[in-house]
Design a protein that fits this description.
Largest sheet: 4 strands, antiparallel
Low-confidence stretches: 1-16
Strand content: over 45%
Structural class: mainly beta
Number of strands: 56
Strand order of the largest sheet: 1-56-55-54
Mean pLDDT: 88
Distance between the termini: 33 Å
Number of helices: 2
Radius of gyration: 28 Å
Length: 670
């Protein structure tokens, strides 16, 4: 994606010089990681020992940290593809995760120190669901349809206890019965999936496993969740049609079924030790299921709560209310939102406090992040609304067309959200101004949205009709802006009339970076065709050109601190950093092997620190003057798609294909 102004206008006006003295070193610490895999059912759960601590799935990692606190998060890294399911043991000492893809492994973790205990590599293609036995001794894993296998593992040795063919072949949920028979060697569990519910027995002593299909009558249902009653006599299974079937464990027969919610019944959460259950629905509702008093149709319409997005996880959390008999729970929805709500409704006539939105995040990959200029207006919620605030605003764009503005405090708080519904989903570049932000899209349009409300202010259609608008930059005087396209054109537009002023066509591939120089008379464009060209806007001609020897360029940033000797750096497919003087044909310096894979993005701070992101999932900091590596962090669990510095250079934000926004504190030692 294109990068907008390499430096915030405030920093580059009048060429603010970086602080004196060479850089001795830099520390970068993760202040906060915001984002989670919201569509994974059961992908967030509280620690049974410390319900203040939550575990949640984010891409190919599991993040754990304290609820509502900023930062202090730790990561369980051991998967090379998206985590599709997670289970936390009853004692809270073990965590199991399963992934999709070629290496469809199940990893067993020590929840206390975050170490990997065992890697169980028997499944192929993917893992559908996991569950621990009540005594933590067994872990059962079910593969996806293409795999069709079920395994019971010994959690102490990592060895297989028993295995068999999975039934139903398409299993969505698994649950253990609380009761263990025959001196603690015979376990009962249930699986639920497409049109079937199966009750299994596992004799751990003899290494046997087998299941019996439950009779479901002549109604066909797609089951999505299941849980056993506290006495292990009944199994409750929720379905896509929003009702709950009750099966007798002994005879595997269907007892009753009762309506519960409008969407699929996706998640069960026991209340008061299983006296009744809260059921999270695919329509965002949380309803009550009381097995001892089957609900009527009217009860099914009476929700406890309604959230935005289908409910994918519910877990009780620790707070004062749990002692007074009304505990709180944390709820996660498919719209990327985490809420804290009360578990019980008050008596009729008494208003319950509404659920609090704890955090929201992008649901899809993040393609762009950019800090706003220091004096940009983001309304009542924005940084400027708070007197002498040191908060800053960031705009992020998701590959699904979602645009959000955040306040960093340092935890990102969303102040504006909007979505562009167009044939060309992903925004390709962004440029944030004082009152609005402009984005370039694959359909060739430039769109401008209001910073505060997110409403669409104007559209410039067909700025680059072939392949889309890939980069955008605005003049320091804000009287014109430039766009670069996938076809290699650079165009200059009048800001007020939004009319085309001039077109430069020399690049033979897409323009990946545009910078307007401080004099507002020259523009520098970088392209995938390996060339960097400086244009004179008055004479409408090319002044200078550099060509990188190998590999296309993905990003280029210019240091305008000294107007007489401007320097720039380009990064790209060759995995190296190329430093240039704007007027010299050959690079000043090439730092080879800067990343182990293609470099995707770069940003320069007002302190003279260069940040680069790469497909190798790392973010690295470099001294712009010497090209020396100062710091590196394994940041995301997908390619890093965008990096941006705050005006004072003390905060770095990175966005990744994993849908996560990471906020880093950067301290420069001189």
């Amino acid at each position: 994606g294109g990068r907008a102004l390499a430096m915030p206008p405030a920093a580059s006006q009048g060429g603010a010089l970086p602080p004196p003295g060479p850089v001795k070193g830099v520390t970068m610490n993760l202040a906060h990681s915001s984002g989670l895999s919201a569509k994974v059912v059961g992908g967030m759960t509280a620690d049974p020992n410390d319900p203040d601590r939550i575990f949640y799935v984010a891409g190919s990692t599991v993040v754990y940290g304290h609820l509502g606190k900023t930062g202090g998060q730790s990561f369980l890294r051991g998967h090379d593809d998206d985590v599709t399911c997670m289970a936390v043991s009853h004692s809270g000492k073990l965590i199991a995760t399963g992934q999709t893809g070629v290496n469809a492994d199940v990893v067993l973790w020590d929840a206390v120190n975050g170490k990997e205990l065992f890697r169980l590599s028997e499944h192929d293609e993917g893992i559908a669901c996991l569950a621990f036995s009540p005594d933590d001794r067994l872990l059962v894993s079910c593969g996806i349809h293409a795999d069709g296998k079920i395994f019971a593992w010994d959690t102490e040795t990592g060895c297989i206890v028993a295995n068999g063919a999975l039934s139903p072949r398409e299993t969505n949920a698994i649950a253990f019965a609380p009761k263990i028979q025959r001196n603690g060697t015979y376990y009962t569990f249930g699986t639920a999936g497409k049109e079937e519910v199966v009750i299994w027995g596992c004799d751990a002593g003899r290494g046997l496993i087998g299941g019996q299909k439950c009779g479901t009558g002549n109604t066909k249902r797609y089951f999505t969740s299941c849980i056993f009653s506290p006495d292990s006599q009944e199994l409750y299974a929720g379905s896509k049609s929003g009702d709950i079937s009750t099966f007798n464990t002994q005879g595997c027969v269907l007892r009753t079924w009762s309506p519960c919610c409008k969407g699929a019944a996706q998640v069960f959460m026991p209340v008061d030790g299983g006296r009744y259950y809260l059921v999270g629905g695919g329509d965002g509702s949380v309803g009550v299921f009381n097995p001892h008093k089957p609900p009527t149709v009217l009860d099914a319409l009476d929700y406890v709560w309604e959230f935005e997005g289908g409910v994918t996880s519910m877990s009780t959390v620790n707070d004062e209310g749990s002692r007074s008999g009304n505990p709180k729970m944390v709820v996660c929805t498919a719209a990327g939102r985490k809420y804290v709500a009360y578990v019980k409704r008050r008596k009729a006539g008494v208003a319950n406090p509404t659920p609090v939105l704890l955090e929201e995040s992008h649901v899809d990959a993040i393609s762009l992040v950019q800090f706003a200029p220091p004096d940009a207006d983001f309304g009542d919620q924005g940084p400027k609304a708070h007197a002498n605030s040191c908060m800053q605003a960031v705009v992020s764009c998701g590959s699904d067309g979602a645009l959000k503005a955040w306040n960093l405090n340092p935890r990102p708080v969303c102040t504006m959200r909007t979505k562009v519904k167009s044939s060309a989903m992903a925004p390709m570049c962004v440029c944030v101004c004082d009152q609005m932000f402009m984005t370039g899209w694959a359909d060739g349009h430039v769109r401008a949205h209001d910073n505060v409300t997110g409403e669409l202010l104007w559209t410039l259609p067909d700025a680059h009709a072939q392949g889309g608008v890939t980069s955008i930059a605005i003049a320091h005087g804000a009287h014109f802006f430039c766009t670069g396209g996938a076809e290699g054109m650079v165009r200059v537009w009048d800001m007020c009339k939004r009319q085309l002023v001039s077109t430069f066509k020399e690049h033979r591939n897409r323009v990946v970076g545009l910078t307007v120089l401080t004099d507002d008379l020259h523009v520098v464009s970088a392209s995938r065709d390996r060339s960097i060209i400086t244009w004179d806007l008055v004479r409408e001609c090319r002044v200078h050109q550099q060509t990188q020897h190998v590999g296309g360029i993905n990003a280029c940033v210019i240091n305008q601190a000294n107007p007489d000797a401007m320097q720039m750096v380009s990064v790209g497919q060759d995995r190296s950093l190329s430093f240039w003087d704007l007027m010299d044909r050959d690079p000043l310096q090439i730092v080879k092997g800067a990343h182990s894979q293609e470099c995707t993005c770069a940003a320069l701070s007002s302190q003279g620190i260069l940040a680069t992101g790469s497909k190798d999932q790392t973010v690295k900091l470099w001294d712009f003057d010497s090209g020396r590596l100062l710091a590196a962090q394994h940041a995301h669990c997908g390619s890093v798609s965008s990096v941006t510095f705050s005006a004072d250079g003390r905060t770095l934000v990175s966005g990744g294909e994993d849908g996560i926004v990471m906020v880093w504190d950067v301290a420069v030692d001189r």
